[in-house]
Amino acid sequence: MDFNEAIKQFSKRVGALKETIKTEEATKMSLIVPIFQLLGYDVFNPLEFCPEYTADVGIKKGEKVDYAILEDGKPSILIECKSCTEQLDKHSSQLFRYFGTTPAKFGILTNGIIYRFFTDLEEANKMDLIPFLEIDITNIKDASINEIKKFCKDSFDKDKIFSTAEELKYSGLIKDYLSKELDNPSEDFVKHVLYYIYDGQRTQKVIEKYQPLVKKAFNAFINDIVNQKIASALSKDEVENDASENEEVVEPHSKIVTTEEELEAFYIIRGILAEVVPVEDIVHRDTESYFGILYKDNNRKPICRINLDKKNKQLFIPDENKKFERIYIDSLNELYKYKKQLEEVVKRYTE
């Protein structure tokens, strides 16, 4: 089993166990130590994976960090653990104190579910207050697996990781900021946009008037980018194959016509699910009564159905019993609101 598959299986295990674990020690043994074992470390060798590593802080002696990964007897990674029942926000200061007293280049704060990775980008030998990487092990993405893999014992290169940490940190912060503005544009963001498009005075009343329009335009812009990226990734042969597959299920003289709007909806759904499964596993099949989107072109694995022919556009999402919930939508942009539900449908077919 390769590393990617092993991490994905471990992710499912953590999801199944987390509600039954109530203490810090149980969290360490069941959720935290196993992942470092997957990373290739000998967790039973204190010369490599040292529990209760002493990190004296100033006049305080005997301060201990939960684990330290050692290289030539010196710590390269410090790991501070908390119970999976605890939030991490109030605990980074403890790791911050340990970090400056050791030669470790990285610190990890975790409750067995969330892993926060720290280093010293802002000031040498002083741990940043903001992690350069945060991963939810129960909702692991391929991009996150690639970052975790860099900490594998066999491929660990602290200089290489440090060189990419700044980009990871700030790209993550930028994405978080844009995500919040996409969902609910702030007054400052709207004012910034209006600076370039509105000649009048940007009063409070004007800002409030244009907030909904900025949100709508922002969503439409993201929609256009997603469609362009997916369309460019599809080769001509793949498009022809999709078309030929549809032709095979269409009877002669059929009145079925796949519209551009239906294809746009298909590409949006593909984009929504691109983080969960390969895009080529998402296919469409048109019928006289609805436009269907399937997982691996399997009629028994419907992802959703769409009906755009009527005055009121409709999205149908199947539950665990394949019963479809009808959802009315005003525009295709609203498909993004159902990302979580669509992902849950696909995960049922992949688990």
Please render the helix and strand layout as text.
Elements: H1 3-17, H2 24-38, E1 49-54, E2 64-71, E3 74-81, H3 92-99, E4 106-110, E5 114-118, E6 133-136, H4 142-149, H5 158-183, H6 187-197, H7 204-233, H8 236-249, H9 260-273, E7 282-286, E8 291-295, E9 302-307, E10 313-318, E11 324-329, H10 339-350
Parallel strand pairs: 3-4
Antiparallel strand pairs: 1-2, 2-3, 4-5, 5-6, 7-8, 8-9, 9-10, 10-11
Helix pairs in contact: 1-2, 6-7, 7-9
Features:
single chain, alpha+beta, 351 residues, 6-stranded mixed beta sheet, 11 strands
Question: How does this structure look, described?
Answer:
It is globular, with a radius of gyration of 25 Å. The two termini are 16 Å apart. Helices cover 44% and strands 18% of the residues. The chain contains 10 helices and 11 strands. The chain has 351 residues and is of the alpha+beta class.
